[in-house]
Amino acid sequence: MTATFDVINPATEQVVDSVRLVTAEETDAAIARAAKAFPAWRAVAPGDRARLLRRFADAVDADLENLARLEVLNAGHTIGNARWEAGNVRDVLHYYAAAPERLTGRQIPVPGGVDLTFAEPLGVVGVIVPWNFPMPIASWGFAPALAAGNTVVLKPAELTPLTAVRLAELAHQAGIPEDVFQVLPGKGSVVGQRFVTHPLVRKVVFTGSTEVGKQIMAGCADQVKRVTLELGGKNANIVFADADLEKAAAAAPYGVFDNAGQDCCARSRILVQKSVYDRFMELLEPAVLGVVVGDPGDEKTEMGPLISHGHRAKVRSYLPEGAPIAFQGKAPDGPGYWFPPTVVTPSGVRDPLAADEIFGPIVAVLPFADEADAIAMANDTDYGLSASIWTRDVGRALRVSRAVEAGNLSVNSHSSVRYWTPFGGFKQSGLGRELGPDALAAFTETKNVFIDTEG
Ligand code: NAD
After folding, report:
1. Of all atoms in ligand 1, which is nearest to the CA of residue 213?
2. Which residue of 18, 122, 182, 204 has the smallest Cβ count within 10 Å?
3. pTM of the shown model
4. What is the pLDDT along the chain (455 residues), one digit of tens a residue?
5. How many CB atoms lie within 10 A of CB 256?
6. 190 lines ligand 1 (CB under 6 A)
7. Pairing between strand 15-20 and 4-8?
């Protein structure tokens, strides 16, 4: 019997589609086809590979509204965010389309001969994607991998397969051979695991929870398989007394409640200098209560639902009777997996409300004494993905940016993602970098060739 998975609209709880789950045997067959397609794909002339990626980007652009509406339906993303996400895929493809013609090696002076280095593609790359940003995260894996001459098998999250399936159709329509880029909707424990264990998959790119990331890394160790990991975060938003408090408080809800807090870069711990704590909370309250939660297809909506019933139950479990709620916005009653934007004031950084990646619209606010205290609190976590620093003091901005153990820092901003700059985590937030030139290097292996010219 063929197993299928019902795709549910999290804003309505209606079934919108049913997707067939790929089996372990089908995964093996897909990997074998990808391995067979590799020699021809790596041999495609750089200019032709670039042209195919640009045509894929143009196909995404032409389909942008459809892709965005699919994501509203499948993931409950607001339409504004979903348009940005589809646009990000287009831009990432254009950025890496410039790569095939620029991916060069080196010639290093040596006595007695010529020494050459080559940037060789790896072979089949397995990309495993989470449900929180299905489109961009898929493209951060497949675009640089394809540009560097690898073939790709990609597994979307069980809950959110629709846009990945559509992206594969667009790639094939653009002329990228079917076996070069295959999307395999299925279970992590089946399809994802085969990416880890199958010897013809030469690299796994995994984005998801730190817990599963550790299993992937351990599994890859057996074959010394290359791995890039983009994992969880519990990111600090540090507000110093000399900051533009109005600006910091107005931006804070966006920093954490965007995508209903289901964002690895969500600034879910706001650390505020004691001397301005009360004033900051006064400014934060109306900003939080003003967040518009509702129909994600409505242009005015700022926050949609959580992804699933089970995920909402997990988020809810953080707020038992007597939880330190400072204030809470409003959300629709249902149907739909709604949760209101919530501000809590836990006792310290190791309180689960301040330490765990809740991955929902709950933000912890904690006071700190001075710069050293702020840095110590920001670093008192196993995560290290991103952080924001709000201050008017340039020296402090740079000092604190250097001292905070995180991969992506923003000063007077919450911006973390630009497709042309590196993205990734310190400590248990990940391994390796995506986006920018770093990602391209991560999809090649350096080969050194010495040619004796002495005869
Ligand atoms: P998850 O770890 O449960 O699943 C991620 C993907 O891995 C899914 O496709 C899932 O099917 C697959 N998977 C699950 N078990 C597997 C296994 N044993 N072997 C192989 N694959 C397996 O994560 P999620 O709940 O989908 O996503 C939320 C998490 O992703 C959060 O922790 C979030 O912080 C993280 N995330 C990180 C980044 C980043 O760039 N650092 C970006 C987005 C999300």
Report:
1. 2
2. 18
3. 0.97
4. 579 999 999 999 999 999 999 999 999 999 999 999 999 999 999 999 999 999 999 999 999 999 999 999 999 999 999 999 999 999 999 999 999 999 999 999 999 999 999 999 999 999 999 999 999 999 999 999 999 999 999 999 999 999 999 999 999 999 999 999 999 999 999 999 999 999 999 999 999 999 999 999 999 999 999 999 999 999 999 999 999 999 999 999 999 999 999 999 999 999 999 999 999 999 999 999 999 999 999 999 999 999 999 999 999 999 999 999 999 999 999 899 999 999 999 999 999 999 999 999 999 999 999 999 999 999 999 999 999 999 999 999 999 999 999 999 999 999 999 999 999 999 999 999 999 998 999 999 999 999 999 98
5. 27
6. no
7. antiparallel
Judge if the beta carbon of residue 215 lies within 6 A of ligand 1. yes
CA 238 – CA 366 distance, rounded (Å): 10
Cβ partners under 8 Å of residue 343, min gap 6:
284, 285, 288, 325, 326, 327, 328, 362, 363, 365
**CA separation for the pair 318, 379 (Å, rounded):** 22
Q: Please indicate whether residue 207, judged by its CB atom, sits closer than 6 Å to ligand 1.
A: yes
| Cβ within 8 Å of residue 455, ≥6 positions away | none
Element (H or E) spanning 441, and its range?
helix 436-441
**The residue type at 81:** N
CA of 213 to the centre of ligand 1 (A): 7
| Closest atom, ligand 1, to C-alpha of 219 | 19
* Residue 7 Cα distances to 94, 160, 186, 397, angstroms: 30, 7, 12, 45
What's the token pair of residue 253? Answer: 């809800």
Minimum CA distance residue for ligand 1 atom 28: 208
What's the gap in Å between 156 CA and the centre of ligand 1?
10
Q: How far apart are CA 155 and CA 350, in angstroms?
A: 34
Which are the catalytic amino acids?
A: 230
> Phi and psi (nearest 5°) for 129?
-115, 140
Domains of the chain and CATH, by start: 4-231+428-452 (3.40.605.10), 236-418 (3.40.309.10)
